[in-house]
Amino acid sequence: MSTVHTDRVIEDLRRVVEDAEALLRETADLAGDRVSEVRARASDSLRSAREQLGTLEEEVLTRAKEAARDADGYVREHPWQAVGIAAGVGLLVGILISRR
């Protein structure tokens, strides 16, 4: 899963949790057994979603750190190849920008 995609999923989950919390706050004054039951289930689901979101964020951070370590190791082992790759990418980006 790409970092951009993962970041988007995390942000979407965060928004869902925030919206659900807002909904629970807005319905706090409603009474009735059915409402209380639904609110309790929603609270449990929110708690679970928050825990999963935290776990997902930790996973993403761990993977990003590993990728950075791997990239650093590659650059240290193959500095001239890294310079060549960076120059090629820079040239490609420059060409693409100049076409606009």
Descriptive overview:
With 100 residues, this protein is mainly α. The chain has helices at 3-26, 33-77, 79-98. α1 packs antiparallel against α2 (33-77).
Characteristics of this structure?
100 residues; elongated; mainly alpha
What is the global morphology? elongated
Overall average pLDDT: 82
The helix/strand class is mainly alpha
Q: Which regions contain 5 or more consecutive residues with pLDDT less than 50?
A: none
- CA radius of gyration: 23 Å
Tally of individual domains:
1
The H-and-E topology, N to C, reads as HHH
Proportion of residues in helical segments:
over 70%
Number of helical segments with 4 or more residues? 3
- The number of E-state strands comes to 0
Question: In whole angstroms, how far apart are the ends?
Answer: 31 Å
Strand content: under 5%
- Largest β-sheet summary: none
> How would you describe the oligomerization state of the chains in this entry?
single chain
Briefly characterize the structure:
This protein has three helices and no strands. By secondary structure, it is mostly helical. The protein has one domain.
How do the strands and helices of this protein lay out in sequence?
Layout: H1 3-26, H2 33-77, H3 79-98
